[in-house]
Amino acid sequence: MAVYKLFPEKDATLYSEYPAMNSGIDQILEATTADAVSGGAPVTSRFVVKFNQTQLQDIFSNYATANPAAYLRLFMAKVEGASQDTLVYCYPISGSWQNGTGAYLDSPAVENGVSWKYRTASGSGAWTTSGFIFGTTGSWSGSNEGGGTWYTDASYAQSASLQYRSSFDLNLDVTNTALAWYSSSILNDGFIIKQEDSAEFSTDSYKKLELKYFSVDTNTIYPPQLEIKWDDYSYTTGSLTEISTADCIISLPNNTGEYQPSAVKRFRLDVRPQNPARVFTTGSVYTTNYLLPTGYYWSIKDLDTDEVAIDFDTVYTKVSADSNGNYFDVYMNGLEPERYYKILVKTTIDGTTKVIDNDYYFKVING
């Protein structure tokens, strides 16, 4: 029932039209197919994203130790030209690269980092274009060689079908790649994201599609994320009694309201019936804590935008229980600082889904 998010340590777009141009600090990442601005043959762009290996090792070694899953999440900034279903592919990169400090169409162009032709600064460290090591490949059009090198193993490759009326956000299952990085089966050089081969460099006008995603340098709350999930659900009742009605009041007595980004907060839930049965007792029935039964889940929303930061998940956001009551853990590092968030709880009873929203808020502050 845990969700841990990593943000990229670097990302950039590779533009075939500008083979040596770096875009390492641009706010946008592109996987676009288009006609060249200067005319001539069609052009394409792909983008690369890398997450810190030390952080990855720490999560898999100390937290996500049982059946973890990893998802690459990318958030759409702009889409234009969508007229048919489009396939987008994601592969692990083969070959290290340098972020650089350029942006799209800087004048003069900055060439001190990764580009279509080079892994590092212009004139050095070119992408492999022949004699690929076993299990890797690359692709380009004509004499404009470059565009990255990636592993071709089917267990690493992931794709998403983007349909005309669907969301163009990407949520790709990259578990096999993340675990391969953790075990050092392959080196962690990040991901490359591109459109399908038949669309790249195509002369067909209906295959021209502009896909733009927010980068790690965005001023929004939508940078790329590597979302790592695992199930550490535990349910022990102790001497507490399960509540027998969905008409209950849930409170978070230990919510202090503000948390550091490095905090791991265990939220405790106090549970009692909304209308307790009338009984003769010497104590208050409102001070007795009950347990929620199995089948309750938690979620977190951004308070200002109403965007879901961590969604309900029947595997990874289950509400646990011990002898002191119900609880769930939140890793604050995956939430944008200086923003307010709302906690929701959900259950399904007799086929009816109920979301409990008691206006419980907290803020992640800059450390």
Tell me the structural class: mainly beta
The total count of helices amounts to 2
- The separation of the N and C termini measures 26 Å
Strand content: 35-45%
Helix-strand sequence: EEEEEHEEEEEEEHEEEEEEEEEEEE
**Which range best describes the helical content: under 10%, 10-25%, 25-40%, 40-55%, 55-70% or over 70%?**
under 10%
- How much is the radius of gyration in Å? 24 Å
Kindly report the average pLDDT value.
91
Q: Overview of this structure, please?
A:
The longest helix is centred in the N-terminal third of the chain and has 10 residues, at 53-62. The radius of gyration is 24 Å and the shape is elongated. Helix 1 (53-62) crosses helix 2. Strands 2, 4, 5, 8, 11 and 13 form a 6-stranded antiparallel β-sheet that branches. A 5-stranded mixed β-sheet has the order 17-24-23-19-20, with no helix packed on it. The chain contains 2 helices and 24 strands. Strand 19 (296-302) and strand 20 (308-310) form a beta hairpin. The protein is mainly beta. The protein is 5% helix and 36% strand.
What is the secondary structure topology, with strand pairs?
Layout (H helix, E strand, L loop, with lengths): L1 E5 L3 E6 L12 E3 L2 E3 L6 E9 L2 H10 L6 E6 L1 E5 L5 E7 L43 E2 L12 E2 L6 E5 L7 E4 L1 H8 L8 E5 L14 E5 L10 E6 L17 E4 L6 E2 L4 E10 L22 E7 L5 E3 L9 E3 L2 E7 L7 E11 L2 E13 L3
Helix pairs in contact: 1-2
Brief summary of the model shown:
With 367 residues, the chain is mainly β.
Please name the defining characteristics of this protein.
6-stranded antiparallel β-sheet, 367 residues, 2 helices, mainly beta, 24 strands, 5-stranded mixed β-sheet
